[in-house]
Write a structure and sequence with these properties.
288 residues; Elongation Factor Tu (Ef-tu), domain 3; alpha/beta; binds flavin-adenine dinucleotide; Rossmann fold; 2 domains; 6-stranded antiparallel sheet; 7-stranded mixed sheet
Length: 288
């Protein structure tokens, strides 16, 4: 089954190397040191033309600070207001964190290979996210909710270090009501936490999967994704049905500079979403 009819074609701002001005329309604190910045392209024609697919990212440019890759975390069905969920990590992200509603930033994009929504249609989908890795998977969840009938069983396995690090907790009830089976865990609970304690891959022990009809999408720390792959393969899910989103330091985003090279793969162009079978020889290796 193809979902092409329900997905907009990605359309980027006119020149992939030239940032367009975008204005911060809202800022939503999500978790400790993490906020979602909702951006609107200032040029109405560019805003009307822009479209993205789940898993794609934009390059956000802050003059004087630098440019960073940030996944679009909002609904692809509403591409006029673009959510970017940012963890304050270093120079550029902290500078962004000091900006207020109404400030402008440069935006290039969207870039990258998206999650395989068409291939997932008609199958069971297991979405596995760790920490801020849920940001590039949120557009998948929102797309599934728009066309829930197009998928079989849909499960979200999500975890973060502590309850304070969990993202989008105010949306979990709506996702459950939309027939997405949500399982959440934390590495370390606190006195108010009544949920599960343990690492994300352990959540596989709470679900049953039919390996022939299951597709996995995962994003999170690489060590987590290694164990997710281990659990998936142990359940006889094919390597070709496991997709992961890889992050690498990125500069040009269009396959010129080589900063994001991973084995023979340029993460900015062939990724960030990659089929596990295509990177197996390099994945999890310190030296190759
Ligand atoms: C395709 C893609 C999508 C991304 N999506 C998001 C997102 O949705 N939200 C978000 O918060 N971040 C995301 N990132 C990571 C983000 O680009 C980096 O955190 C950012 O570049 C850090 O910039 P900085 O100047 O604030 O920190 P820096 O001062 O450059 O670095 C701070 C620390 O982060 C490390 N670092 C820098 N870049 C990366 C990177 N790409 N991956 C891992 N560690 C890095 C540095 O080694 C250093 O330890 C994404 C990266 C890629 C490649």
């Amino acid at each position: 089954m193809s979902l092409a009819f329900s997905m907009p074609e990605p359309r980027m701002v006119h020149d992939p190397m030239l940032p367009e001005r975008a204005v911060i329309e809202a800022i939503k604190p999500e978790a400790y040191g993490i906020s979602t910045f909702f951006l609107r392209l200032a040029d109405p024609a560019e805003a009307a033309a822009y479209a993205f697919l789940p898993g794609q990212f934009n390059m956000l440019y802050l003059p004087g600070a630098g440019e960073i890759a940030i996944s679009v975390s909002s609904d692809p069905g509403e591409p006029r207001l673009l959510g970017h969920t940012v963890r304050y990590a270093g120079n550029v992200t902290r500078t962004l964190g000091r900006l207020k509603v109404g400030h402008g930033v440069g935006l290039r994009g969207p870039f990258g290979n998206p999650w395989p929504m068409g291939e997932a249609a008609g199958k069971d989908l297991v979405i596995v996210a760790g920490g801020i890795g849920l940001a590039p998977l949120r557009p998948v969840i929102l797309s599934v909710l728009r066309r829930r009938d197009a998928y079989g069983r849909v499960v979200l396995l999500y975890g973060a270090r502590t309850p304070a690090d969990l993202l989008y907790t105010d949306e979990f009830a709506r996702w459950q009501e939309g027939n997405i089976d949500v399982h959440v865990t934390v590495d370390l609970g606190d006195e108010r936490w009544k949920g599960l304690v343990g690492v994300v891959p352990q959540l596989f022990y709470r679900i049953r999967v039919d390996p022939k009809r299951t597709l996995i999408m995962t994003c999170g720390p690489e060590i987590m994704m290694r164990f997710v792959i281990y659990e998936a393969l142990a359940r006889r899910i094919a390597k070709e049905s496991i997709y992961l989103s890889m992050e690498r330091n990125m500069k040009c985003a269009v396959g010129f500079c080589g900063h994001c090279q991973f084995g023979p793969t340029f993460i900015c162009k062939q990724g960030p979403v990659l089929k596990y079978s295509s990177i197996e020889p390099f994945f999890g290796k310190e030296d190759f």
